[in-house]
Amino acid sequence: MKRTFRASVAALALSSASAAFAADTVVVVTSFPNSMTGPIEAAFEAANPGIDLEILNKKTSAGVKYIQEISDANTADIFWASAPDAFEVLKGDGLLASVEINSDGIPEKIGAYPMNDPDGKYYGFAAAGYGIMWNERYLKAKKLEPAKNWAELKDAAYHGHVGMSAPSRSGTTHLTVETVLQGEGWDKGWAEWKWIGGNFSTVTERSFGVPDGVNTGNFGLGIVIDFFGFSSKASGFPVDFAYPEVTALVPANIAVVNNAPNETAAKTFVEYLLTPAGQEVLLDPAIMRLPINPATYANAPEGFPNPFEDGSIGAAVKFDVAKSGARYNLVNSMFDVMITYRLDDLRAAVGAVQAAEAKHASGDNAEAKALIAEARALIDANPIDEARSMDPEFAGIFTKKRKKASDTVGERQAEVEQRWDAMVVENYRKAKELADKAAAL
Amino acid sequence: MSNASPHNTGGPSLLDRLPASIFPRVTGLHASALIIAILLIGLLIIPVFQVIYVAFLDPNTGALTLQNFVDFFRTSLFRESFWNSFYVSAMSVVFATVIALPLAYITTRFNFAGSVVIQSLGFIPLIMPPFVGAVAMQLIFGRNGTLNLLIEEKFGVNIPFMEGLNGVILVQSIHYFPFILINLSTSLRNIDRSMEEAAQNLGSQGMRLFRRIVFPLAMPGYVAGAALVFIKVFDDLGTPLLLNVNNMLAPQAFLRISSIGISDPMGYVISFILVAFSIFSLWASFLVMRGKDYSTVQKGGGGLSRRDLRTGEKIAAYVVVAFILILVLSPHIGLTLLSFATIWSFAPLPDGFTLQNYVVMWENSKQFITNTVIYAGIAAVLDVIIGTAIAYIVIRTGIWGRKSLDYLATAALAVPGVVLGIGYLRVFHSIDIPFTDKPMASWWVIIALALMIRRLPYALRACTAALQQVSLALEEAAESLGATKGSTIRRIVIPLMSGGILAGFVTSFATAAVELSATIMLVSSESDAPLAYGIYLFMQTPSGRGAGAALGVVAVIIVGLGTFLSQLMIERDKKFKSTDQSH
């Protein structure tokens, strides 16, 4: 017993050592699941027998931390994930290499979003859009219709039936939030999110928590990235997915890490992903990402959305990457303070307003109408305006990236958040009080 | 007590003739204490410090400051989180006691068929693999889980088992009550029968006997278990996160540390407060136990006498046990169903059953299973060795600073896995594996060491409780008969502690086998990954849910078998002791 144990320890040590020293191993740090990396790895290794892909799966935030921590003796070749902002963070730290990638046949833009990093640090390899996913059985049991637009999610009928992840937890969710803020305008956009938030069943900790919740029927509708919807449906769950009008198509990206141990082979992999053969693999039923090579759509299954022909997907919003980047952490923090951490308060306030409005649907009680309007204004109120969000000094409080040791930032994040929190909690409480009063009339 | 060896019996040895100032007399115990201290500092303190020193820096200027702590207490969200964490921990201890006490009492006090099975099954909840446990609990107790769908159909109401703080308390009590069960049972078994007989001779019986004699004598085990539950729940991250409860301390720390690109110092401040509060709770549990002597001299009796139950009592006992077991095993029942399910969505039961999930799982996970057994095995063996040593040094010696070893080791309980993971990457990335030029951080041994540090507190509490019940008189007797310190420990102390050591081993092994938060940071190649990581990979995709559940079931079976075998060993050991000296 003891001997077998020791032997297996030795064998394990040897096997991991030998794998690590093989000449052409490309270490890929990725947030993509096995079901996606597996088929791509198989196809790539068949096409390039000399190169061995070593897939290292970490969730996006852990992957970013991992690359940062190992940078002084880097062992990773490639970073491969959805959220462009994760790449922005690595790029900002100077951890991504500039490599010349041959990308014949790939357009410059997907929707309104640039396909590749303008500085050539990372490249898009697939596209994704955000939308609403729903569980058919759940909606049938609760006698609901699927919502096809963000605005419909504010409807009182959906109270307690919606799920979403927080933008601070998931880079893809951040893009959804920012898209609405840019599409609807700062104040209107935030009001939109708060009224949708008031209908939330939960704010999940992982982005996968949303499709999972819809799949199990824990909540009825979820705000998700398209491939979660497609692949859940392909796995047989009674779910469906639709793109709303205000959405953005954004590329999922890949980058070669600075000082990669095997840069040439890493480059081969990136280029392979962009070839027609590599793009074809994305149509695998378990992957279901939108290829970025328009030619690949010729082989797509029937009903598969084609963003290069169907102008309605992702065309409505011109997504401003610079704007999004400048206030990235600030938007995350605001969402958490106003919605994630105060979900119970928000839900109570929104629920009370919905109840009051249902009671006075005719609108002929002027006093109730005034109270409801006041309550609505309290929920809509934003702690800061758009100009403030774009003030680099103010947004800097949330990044704490001092360029020089002498740089100082006026306030601390904890102070600002406490101020917002106090305001939001008080507003929600007052709004509920007013709405209750209106309902009692 | 003194550690001087009896040198006066022979001539002065070489060591004695050397000047003491240059060669201080170091006994084996001193050396062990020193080695353990170095280990703890190197593997816990330095890595953690590498991460949380940010809590003491002014985010704007980089100067040392306590301002962040002032901010913490000024922020209403954090004060509320602190109170919520405290409330949930205290209530979880209460509910865990309600679950554990009847199981422990019935199985140790009465001749009850299936005691071994109950003791093993009662341990299983501790092995709730990440993610699958979450999904399974939601499927059974969730808003639209089996139970609520049935209740809603019959009565038209929906009971929020899994909502808010109450949900956290429910899940935590079910998850962590084994800490109390296992420690309390061991304590109950170690109670000297003569104490009970003396009380009975004086006319005490029934509840009074239990309240005044049996339970107080089992206090070391109960307090050890309750303290573990309290601290563990206070620091636990997984359950609040899976229930999406954010207004507690640990999730607040995690959310702030692990967001992309955010370097908010508050996350580290909260981590620091978690560690400090855990040490404080531990110290408080020591205060409760201080000045009380729980050791018993006679070890031949094999614990409390067991009596037969009357028929009515037996039925009542079976009903209670069955109810508790169904409750605490429901996550695993859900897990098993899920592993055989085709599609399970908004329905009391899956649409259909299949073996396909196990086929998929088996094709992809053999390596994960082997790795887990090796890592968790190494971690648990080291844990009981170090745990026994620390327990002995703390309780039996006067070595300077001995208590701090205990506090240090227990502090590991409060260190969030992410923090330890990042700390290990920082410290070990710049050190190469001996004889190679690969950084140590990407060596699989580091994962085993991280698991060892994270699970050491479990083993330590079990070993400490076991040693508290061994009377000093037995050791003094051995020493007065000429046994050296070393052979006393080897031949008297450790055999008497064996039940507790085994309990510690099982707890450490089982929980190490399913830990994820630190390992996910440290895994540097898939061939080195443990099982929990494999489950994580599966559970990332809608199609992998069943296969992930199947791998979870395998984890539970592996650990469950190990537990069952060690329970058998404890029972056999006990029988052997009691038949040997029956009178």
Structural overview:
The complex is a heterodimer of chains A (441) and B (583). Chain A has 441 residues and is an alpha/beta fold. Among the domains of chain A are: 2-127 and 250-299, Periplasmic binding protein-like II (D-Maltodextrin-Binding Protein, domain 2, 3-Layer(aba) Sandwich), CATH 3.40.190.10; 327-441, no CATH class. Chain A has helices at residues 2-21, 34-47, 60-69, 84-92, 136-141, 171-184, 186-197, 209-216, 226-234, 263-274, 276-280, 321-326, 328-340, 343-359, 366-380, 386-390, 392-395, 413-440, and strands at 25-30, 52-57, 78-81, 109-110, 113-114, 123-135, 162-165, 200-204, 221-225, 239-242, 249-256, 290-291. In chain A, strands 1, 2, 3, 6, 7, 8, 9, 10, 11 and 12 form a ten-stranded mixed β-sheet that branches. In chain A, α2 (34-47) links the parallel β1 (25-30) and β2. In chain A, α3 (60-69) packs parallel to α4 and α6 (171-184) crosses α7 (186-197). The longest helix of chain A has 28 residues, at 413-440. The radius of gyration of chain A is 24 Å and the shape is globular. Chain B is mainly α. Chain B contains 24 helices and no strands. Chain B has helices spanning 14-17, 28-52, 67-74, 76-109, 115-121, 132-141, 146-155, 164-190, 193-201, 206-217, 219-235, 238-242, 249-258, 266-289, 311-339, 356-396, 402-411, 417-428, 444-468, 472-480, 485-513, 519-522, 531-538, 545-580. Residues 1-11 of chain B have low confidence and may be disordered. Chains A and B meet through α1, α2, β2, α3 and α4 of A and α3, α6, α13, α16 and α18 of B.
CATH topology of chain B: MetI-like fold
Order of helices and strands of chain B: HHHHHHHHHHHHHHHHHHHHHHHH
Taken as a percent bin, the fraction of beta residues of chain B is under 5%
Which architecture of chain B per CATH? Answer: Orthogonal Bundle
* Low confidence ranges of chain B: 1-11
Number of DSSP strand runs of chain B = 0
